[in-house]
Amino acid sequence: MEAANAKSFFWEAFPPLPTCRVYCSPTYQDGHLFVVGGCSQQALPLDSVEMLDVVSRKWLALPPMPTPRAGAAATMLGKQLLVIGGVDSMQSPLASVEVYNMDEGKWEKKADLAQASMGISAVEKDGALYALGGMGADTSPQALVRLYEPTKDLWLPLPSMPTPCYGASTFLHGNKIYVMGGRQGKLPVTALEAFDLEVRSWTRYPSVPSRRAFASCAMVDGCFFSLGGLQQPGPHNFYSRPHFVNTVEMFDLEQGSWSRLSRATRMRDKRADFVAGSLGGRVVAAGGLGNQSSPLGSVEGFNLAKKKWEPLPSMPTGRCSCSHLQAANLLFVIGGVAQGPSSAVEALCLRDGV
């Protein structure tokens, strides 16, 4: 795919979130952005759900969830908004699953997960939902893979992930779900694994070459990227401190190997805890924390053909710890932390596709 010209990118600032929140769960369908739960400014889980009509630019408050939660997985299944797991006001993982029916305008409890879990990665494919990983009540990372069949309201166990983790990045590519990164307690995970939906088996690929906390992942044109983060000091380097990096590591599916790109192809800015995605045939890195005293507003895009990062328009509101969502020709950046909790909702767009 030919990369879009850097000049064709622009930011659209939408009306702010009616309810300020961090660690919310976004999902999107047919021009509507749904923002589910999260933590309030008092650090308590929220039951509120709000829907933005992208065309009219108006927010609508939906009926509250029966169970307040943060760190849940949220996805659309047809005309139903499915919310899975997360944590409650006691910081305990939840097993509860709830569905909002758009036509009926009400919530309904569904079959619980077999084990309580937060930080689940959810992927929808052909009307079925796959829930991968998570963190359990004992704070241990989980290797669980569950398939939800909505017509039967049933969770089916599938072969476990080779590497237990929570908060991983997932990418649906062809008939496989690729799982990359995530965490095990305080440790960042370097595994890259794929689940084949047809034969229901896992493939392990070579791990990300370097371990970095708060790195971000993206995929474009069959290539996976591990970007930036916070480099921890090595075991034999007692005097080094954690430091921000602009590392770029790329895995090519066809070649089956990682390449640590040259110094010339590192990101322009050192950053961690930032938004990464793909838009217009480019890998995009936006915001995050760097060596500055406040969150970054800078944005850059990687042109795969040129092996080059180029500046893109800056975020209207510099932030870190954002929720984000990829939808068609939009990369939504939602909430997060600026000088304090932010209600900003902004989307990086392409002029040709919006």
UniProtKB/TrEMBL annotation:
Q: Where in the cell is it found?
A: Cytoplasm; Midbody
Could you list this entry's UniProt keywords, alphabetically sorted: Cell cycle, Cell division, Cytoplasm, Kelch repeat, Repeat
Name a single GO biological process: mitotic nuclear division
Alphabetical list of InterPro entries matching this protein: Kelch-typ_b-propeller (IPR015915), Kelch_1 (IPR006652), Kelch_domain_containing_8 (IPR051746)
Classification via SMART domains: Kelch
Q: What residue ranges carry the coiled-coil annotation?
A: none
A Gene Ontology cellular component where this protein is annotated is: intercellular bridge
Q: Which domain of life is it from?
A: Eukaryota
The answer, when asked if Glycoprotein is one of the entry's keywords, is no
Function description: Involved in pinching off the separated nuclei at the cleavage furrow and in cytokinesis. Required for mitotic integrity and maintenance of chromosomal stability. Protects cells against mitotic errors, centrosomal amplification, micronucleus formation and aneuploidy. Plays a key role of midbody function involving abscission of the daughter cells during cytokinesis and appropriate chromosomal and nuclear segregation into the daughter cells.
Annotated PANTHER family: KELCH DOMAIN-CONTAINING PROTEIN 8B (PTHR46260:SF2), RING-TYPE DOMAIN-CONTAINING PROTEIN (PTHR46260)
Could you identify this protein by its name?
Answer: Kelch domain-containing protein 8B
Species this chain originates from: Eublepharis macularius
Species lineage, top-down?
Eukaryota, Metazoa, Chordata, Craniata, Vertebrata
